[in-house]
Design goal:
The protein has 2 domains: 244 residues, Glycogen Phosphorylase B (Rossmann fold), CATH 3.40.50.2000; 162 residues, Glycogen Phosphorylase B (Rossmann fold). The chain is built from 16 helices and 13 strands.
Length: 425
């Protein structure tokens, strides 16, 4: 048995893969402790894990910048805000706290951009494992850093890809490497480069929690990167399917779900127009609208039998009953769509969402409309195409079959235990 510390940050959608890992590692006899910020503590405690809190409140820190982060498809701008307003101010305190928490640990498991983890691992000479949740941080000449509306010839596309990653690297080294390395020097650990990409990954084991059905592995990724498949968990033990949901799903009409993922109540307001446009387009297509996690500020129709509002429902429970899903492009939501075999209409904002949307189009798993161009007319046309084109349903069946053959959690656990055998605990 090994003593393991798992650390991550973000929303509940960011936490879910780590609950899947923690649950599996605990069932294999390991002692698992979570080290997270306060917003994630309640759900982890409900699963019976011990929790040690870290300094930081991402929701509060980013509250003044919600429009820039969630409503604009500008990944580099949203990343700058994340680093400057949230990550940097709390990083020294996180390092000190995580260092104390890991004193008796045999292994540290961390989401890749948790910069405190690499510092602590080096200070304590502690084996650690990086988990990459989205391939948007892994440069490749075979993968476009940003989506294009019109495909280019393959040689020109590869050149553009290299140039785009090169330019993004210059920007990221300024906004990420320079300030993070200042903190690293304070703790007397060597500087690293390309910290937002491969520079902050563990030399012991790095796992990419993504299926090749979403992005086939490029031949120029590091050989040490283990592509495991997705890690699925989204159903709290206390959740029970309400009768009104059971009744709503019993229909001959197509059902289209619309969600913005696991954004907290304070962040939902920026999605009001997105929800209203989505509902209007769903109804215009003659489908039933399953509306998940909508803001109270949205002006939504009431008293209609073809609309059901739910503040929360596990995607794994309802997506298989849907004909399509409209969503923001979060990697966790995409994973659930692919496993359910349901096509997506992706309406991305910032961070990795435009990248994820482009991959869905590349895989013929859905369509995408940039947030600033999202209108009822465009959404209705896209939905009608998804609902009426058999090729999408056929392609989604193929993807679903591939993902059901994978077991990302088991693959990860086996790799961790192999690592531990080479590092006695």
């Amino acid at each position: 048995m090994a003593r393991m510390v798992i650390t991550t940050f973000g929303s509940m959608g960011d936490l879910n893969p780590f609950i899947a890992l923690g649950t599996a590692l605990r069932s294999r006899g390991h002692d698992v402790l979570f080290s997270v910020e306060g917003n994630l503590e309640p759900q982890i405690s409900l699963q019976g894990f011990p929790v040690r809190l870290l300094t930081g409140d991402q929701e509060k820190a980013l509250a003044p910048f919600r429009q820039q982060i969630f409503h604009r498809d500008q990944p580099l701008l949203s990343l700058r805000l994340l680093v400057e307003q949230y990550i940097l101010p709390t990083l020294p305190a996180k390092v000190a706290e995580l260092r104390e928490i890991c004193q008796q640990a045999d292994l540290l498991i961390s989401v890749a951009p948790q910069f405190a983890a690499s510092i602590v691992a080096e200070l304590l000479h502690l084996p650690w494992v990086s988990v990459v949740l989205t391939p948007s941080t892994l440069p490749s000449a075979r993968v476009a850093a940003q989506p294009l509306s019109t495909p280019l010839p393959a040689p020109l596309q590869r050149w553009r890809n290299r140039f785009s990653w090169f330019l993004a690297g210059i920007f990221l080294r300024q906004i990420v490497d320079q300030p993070i390395n200042r903190v690293r020097r304070e703790f007397q650990v060597p500087p690293r480069t390309n910290l937002m990409w491969t520079g902050n990954l563990s030399p012991h084991l790095t796992a990419l929690a993504v299926s090749p059905a979403f992005l086939p592995r490029p031949d120029d990724w590091p050989e040490s990167l283990l592509m495991t498949g997705f890690y699925f968990w989204d159903r709290p033990q206390s959740w029970q399917c309400p009768e009104m949901l059971k009744d709503f799903l019993q229909t001959d009409q197509p059902i289209v779900a619309v969600t913005a993922g696991s954004v907290v109540p304070e962040e939902r307001a920026v999605f009001a127009a997105y929800y209203q446009t989505s509902i209007e387009s769903i109804l215009a297509c003659g489908a039933r609208a399953l509306v998940i996690n909508a803001p109270q500020t949205a002006i939504l129709p009431e008293g209609r039998e073809d609309i059901l509002y739910l503040s929360f429902v596990p995607f794994s429970e309802v997506f298989p009953a849907c004909a399509a899903v409209i969503h923001h492009g979060g990697i966790g939501t995409i994973a659930q769509c692919l496993r359910a075999g349901v096509p997506s209409l992706v309406v991305p904002g910032g961070m990795d969402q435009p990248f994820n949307a482009a991959q869905m189009v590349q895989r013929q798993a859905g369509l995408w409309i940039p947030r600033k161009q999202y209108t009822t007319r465009r959404a209705e046309r896209a939905l009608n195409r998804l609902l009426s084109t058999p090729a999408y349903q056929e392609r989604m069946r193929e993807i679903r079959a591939q993902i059901l053959q994978e077991d990302g959690v088991t693959t990860f656990c086996a790799a961790v235990e192999q690592l531990l055998r080479h590092i006695p605990v």
